[in-house]
């Protein structure tokens, strides 16, 4: 895309996490968490078969299964009832030993996994390893490596003015903050964690000064569907360098079809909501000390819950509303 014409900023850098093995940034954190679990295994426990278990609306599960297959282990995933058949089939095709559907939200699926599925596996003699999709230091550490790469890849090693990322449970956001601190950029780089209306547990928590639990997820961006963010994400969200952003589903979907036209990458709305800041002057609205020469990194987190058919449905549903919202930034 002509980034100055579209965004008003000359220097937009795309961190293409959609090219990770599982199709999303989750490969970094989930993969690191799995390797850490294997390395910390008690030598006396190596007689039992290792079986990884994850709860997910799709992307974390795919990351877990993809890594497990690569490492030569089994992996099973518990998904909430809102998960579409296409995503379930994708998990099975990736090599999942089992995909279990349970509960109205990720929280309910996760509770069932920890309290029922894994104990049952342990009774059968397996070593069931629970892989949390976002709330674990090993997950944040894995995600933080993208900042190490940014430090090498940014022109002259200079920090960006801002980093934009999507937020669901907060693993990616927590990792970015960890990486920025390690790089010595934590107090100077603005971070914009972006959510959709109806999946905005971080923004609501920051606004109210306490961890907020949503009654449910009403956004179509179900990959952002954690009814409560990790406590660490809430703590990081209150830092002065952080600017939470909440956009509508229509803006997230519009960014998906525009990004496909401009860059030939197909991403889901949970990713599109971050990409949306690159369109219609939104960066000028949210970026502190905005200048045409500002350097902004957009984390293109990817995601598997999208197809051309689905994107066309979103376009029919949301195009008019997206145009109305774009006019606000003109």
Poorly predicted regions are 1-5
- The CATH class assignment of the largest domain is Alpha Beta
What fold name stands as the CATH topology of the largest domain?
Answer: Rossmann fold
Q: From N to C, what is the helix and strand string?
A: HEHEHEHEHEHEHEHHEHHHEH
Strand content: 5-15%
User: Helix share of residues?
Assistant: 40-55%
| Radius of gyration over all CA atoms, rounded | 19 Å
- Counting DSSP E segments of at least 2 residues, the number of strands comes to 9
Instruction: Give the neighbour order of strands across the main sheet.
Output: 1-9-6-7-8
Q: Total domains, how many?
A: 2
Q: Average pLDDT across residues?
A: 93
Number of helices: 13
Shape: globular
Major sheet size, sense and barrel closure? 5 strands, parallel
SSE-based structural type: alpha/beta
Give the end-to-end Cα distance, rounded to a whole number of Å. 19 Å
CATH architecture of the largest domain: 3-Layer(aba) Sandwich
EC number: 4.3.1.17
Protein name: L-serine ammonia-lyase
Domain Tryptophan synthase beta chain-like PALP: 7-302
GO biological process, one term: isoleucine biosynthetic process
